[in-house]
Amino acid sequence: MSQLATWSSRLALFALAVAALSVAILRSGLMEIGPALATFAAALIFAAAAMLLAMVAFIVIWRHGLPGLGRAVRGLLLGIMLLAYPAYVGERALKLPAITDLTTDPANPPRFGALARERPKDRIAYPGAAAAALQHAAYPDIVPLQLALPVRTAYEVALAVIVKRKWPIAETRAPSGRGDATIEATARTLLMGFRDDVAIRVSPQGAGSRVDLRSASRYGEHDFGANAARLRSLLEDIDDAAGSAPEPRPEPEPEKPAKRPAPKRPQPKR
Fold first, then answer.
1. Given CA atoms 3, 81, 223, 116 in this order, what sign does their dihedral have?
2. 101-243: CATH architecture
């Protein structure tokens, strides 16, 4: 039996266990993000070592006719599986700009109110013109959504979409008069479970309304396109839901008081 093939399989299985543990820790919040990511990085190192041992094992098995080909193949395949996602993320990092805060309205982005307490202090305010320029160059399609619905109806549509996605809602503010309506919620990335905060603002515009969104990562220097993908999907879902929303009922006009007949003037006596 090839010892190299055996150790390749063992290292790959160990790397898989460490990677699963680090993802579970990240999603549960049992550990700070730094140590959890360091644990995941260690799993990737073990996976790379397992692949290297597997390649050497193939050569030894071919030259000396030793058993253990299945274990070497297992080590190689598990290593490739574990490194595939980081390789995909790295490829996106090379293509996409290093921004973590995107909005449909860079000039006046929706603000974080309740969620400001959950975010790092240097990540509450919008980054500014530099981030806006990078966003416009990479994602020119991230623009406000115009709806032919009154603000209250558009707000209810957006809130229903957030509820359907099962995002934890931090705060909602229904429209009052001609004021804006706002929603704040937290989304999570699919695999690692990183928390990204979302703010929605619904403003009156003419006879309809305008929906502005903001999606911002809490940590990291690169979102690898996650916030842009989230905004695109959210804009599309709100637009689709608005298209099937029932027609708003016109508010009944207040009843006017009945006019009293004018009193009759007494006729002068002749």
1. negative
2. 2-Layer Sandwich (3.30)
